[in-house]
Amino acid sequence: MKIPTARFGEIDVDPSRIIDMPGGIPGFEHLRRYVLLTHRENHPFLWLQAVDDGRIAFVVVNPFLFQVSYEPEIPDDVVRKLSIGKEEDVVVLVIVTIRKDPFRLTANLRAPIVVNGNNRRGMQVILEDHEYPIQFSLLKTPVLEAEAGSARKEMAISTALGGV
Amino acid sequence: MLVLTRKSGDGIRIGDSIVVTVLEIRGKQVKLGITAPADLSVHREEIYRMIREQNEMASLSDGMDVTGVKEAWRTLNEAEGIKT
Predict the structure, then answer these.
(1) Domain-wise residue ranges, chain B
(2) What is the DSSP string of chain A?
(3) Of A6 and A154, which is predicted with more confidence?
(4) How many other CB atoms are there within 10 angstroms of residue A145's CB atom?
(5) Does A97 touch chain B (CB under 8 A)?
């Protein structure tokens, strides 16, 4: 299916690659279908593009690429809602906010996007753990691997979730 | 706004499937128990609002800025001697 988007023009989406977010995400509850797009090769960022509103897309990144102690505990009700069977199926992404000043790059560690790669169902989980900031500065956080390695890992995530 | 007075142990039912129970009242704090269907999410209002605002801000990110970020990253990391 072809969908018009504000950032990428018209894109062709394989319906089997759609990520279903039954509850939407706070502020965008009416949008329930998303696809994952790579920003460009060798870039750790991915785009979570809303299928039903071409204007809405979020930059997301794999938080485990960064040298930060991050162990989000997925609550039982989330495990149930997403029908998560095994840990390997879980994909965690965090939403990145990019402002005009690129040095003010932050990631929301408090509310990660959790997706079950097996059934492609996901949701934004608001963690009870107060330790994780909503605006975590990413720029001062070293990347764990060489960029090429990171990019490969992102491609793997993208492939697991059927990124375009 | 509907206002109801309840005692500890009392509940309120909303529709068929949501029950809010007052579990404990201590000084200025009240402990509530909430039973709701799995497809409804329940959050503390102020946290929910902060997450929503952050999402709204994040949705304004644009592709040009993403490219700028990578440069900023490199500049900063080089300045601090961090290997990227």
Answers:
(1) 7-39, 43-84
(2) -EEEETTTEEEE--GGGPEE-TT-BTTBTT--EEEEEESSTT-S-EEEEESS-TT-EEEEE-GGGBSS-------HHHHHHTT---GGGEEEEEEEE--SSTT--EE-SSS-EEEETTTTEEEE---S-TTS-SSEE-TTS-BSS-HHHHHHHHHHHHHHTT--
(3) A6
(4) 13
(5) yes
Q: Which tokens sit at A138?
A: 């990413």
* Set of chain B residues whose Cβ sits within 8 Å of the Cβ of A45: 66, 69
In this prediction the pTM is 0.82
A143 shares contact with chain B (CB less than 8 Å): yes
Strand partners, A127: none
Closest chain A residue to B36 measured between Cα atoms?
A77
* Contact status of A121 with chain B (Cβ, < 8 Å): no
Per-residue confidence at A146, pLDDT binned at 50, 70, 90? very low
Assigned token pair, B81:
């001697």
Domain A2-160 has CATH 3.40.190.10: no
Per-residue pLDDT tens digits for B3-44? 999 999 999 999 999 999 999 999 999 999 999 987 777 889
Query: Could you identify the residue written with the tokens 């977010």?
Result: A21
- Cβ within 8 Å, pair A96-B51: no
- Select the residue of A7, A126, A135 nearest B62 (Cβ to Cβ): A7
A160: pLDDT confidence band, cut at 50, 70 and 90? Answer: low
